[in-house]
Amino acid sequence: MREKRELGRPWSVAVVSARPGEGATLVTATAGVMIDHRTGPGGQNVILMDADLLTGGLTSLLRAWQVPGTDDAYGVGARAGDGGGGLVGYALDRERRLRDRGIQHRLQELRSSDGRDGDMNLLAMRAPGSAALTTLGDLPDVMGRAVERLGEIAGCLLVDCGHGWNARTRRICETVEHIFVVGRADARAHPDTLRLFGHLERAGLLPKTVGHLANSPEPAHFAHGFGRRHTTNGHGPGPLAGLPGQGANSAPRQGRRGDTLPVRTLFGLPYDPRAADEIAKGALPGAHSPFWTALCQGMEALEPDLFRTGFDIY
Ligand SMILES: Nc1ncnc2c1ncn2[C@@H]1O[C@H](COP(=O)(O)OP(=O)(O)O)[C@@H](O)[C@H]1O
Ligand SMILES: [Mg+2]
Questions:
Q1: Ligand 1 centre from 94 Cα, in Å?
Q2: What are the pLDDT digits (tens) for 49-79?
Q3: Ligand with an atom nearest the CA of residue 17
Q4: Fewest CB atoms within 10 A around its CB: which of 24, 141, 158, 178?
Q5: Where residue 261 falls among pLDDT bands split at 50, 70, 90?
């Protein structure tokens, strides 16, 4: 029998996706909000990190949650001398060596718009501001160090890596404890998904990859029907049928029909635009929401102690 995990021991996860628009940012934000809500004021403090240089999606989604005055609203800007808040400020702080840079003062406080839930923080990213980062050769190191530092102060740390695979994603994934892949329910067999898992495998990161979280970012009748097992409309095309680019640069595993992913699907999340809207407005979706309920039950089934001590799934 496994040992009981110490209450409040910090833990960290990275959320990655193969393609944009899969719902990775919504899942990350909702999971953070849910953990904060369920553990209450005395529970684990939650830190969310927006590591998506391309879209800064988590920062935009959580705008209504940001407590004014705890940083500039976007995580970068007129903080004289040290480059501003958020990840951009942290990265551009040339006054200190990387290992000596503090991160706490660069966090943005988050609170639900009714003020009830609020033991959360965000290391924000503004997409336009992030242009300044792209010239930094040591950006993966900066990202990895930011994750380490946040891990020192967080009860639970959730990092939205954005889609695809690059040196930054890799460094973040190497640094956290667990990795979740969010993707459309029917996209397990999509070449981009297989490519992402190829990267995780080659980087030796599969052992900490918890699994594939099957989300539905659009109504079922819009589903593409890429996969075999999760085709939601029942009459989609066969596996991998009609995919642009399929074949030309497929690795052997990608050319196979059907589902070859080396991880399981953890649980499904239904299409629920109201929940997405509520999160965007700074509110908790609550028990009436299919998305909220499925995420809550799915995470609890995965790790029964999640809302007490965090993930300890192995
Ligand atoms: N389960 C869902 N139900 C309804 N809308 C969703 C769901 N998942 C994602 N969305 C919506 O789909 C869009 C893309 O989601 P997002 O989280 O930004 O994706 P990603 O970060 O993977 O690019 C957003 O408008 C989001 O609100
Ligand atoms: Mg996103």
A1: 36
A2: 999 999 999 999 999 999 877 665 444 444 4
A3: 1
A4: 141
A5: confident
Please indicate, yes or no, if residue 201 is contained in any of the structural domains.
yes
The number of domains in the chain is: 1
The enclosing H or E element of 57 equals helix 57-61
Section 144-172 average pLDDT: 95
For residue 265, what are the domain limits? 11-226+255-309
Give the least confident one: 81-90, 103-112, 120-129, 192-201: 81-90
Query: Within a domain: residue 244?
Result: no
Taking the CA of 217 as reference, the closest ligand is 1
Q: How far is the CA of 46 from the centre of ligand 2 (A)?
A: 19
User: Is residue 258 very low, low, confident or very high in pLDDT (cuts 50, 70, 90)?
Assistant: low
Which residues are CB-neighbours of 128 under 8 A, at least 6 positions away?
Answer: none
d(CA 5, ligand 2 centre) in Å: 31
Ligand 1 site, residue 285, Cβ cutoff 6 A: no
| Gap between the Cα atoms of 144 and 103, Å rounded | 13
**Ligand 1 atom nearest to CA at 20:** 23
Q: Under DSSP, is residue 13 helix (H, G, I), strand (E, B) or coil?
A: strand
* CATH number of the domain where residue 64 is located: 3.40.50.300
Residue 226 confidence (pLDDT): 54
Confirm if 76 and 86 have CB atoms less than 8 A apart. Answer: yes
Choose the residue to mutate in 19, 22, 26 for probing ligand 1, maximizing ligand atoms within 8 Å of C-beta.
Answer: 26
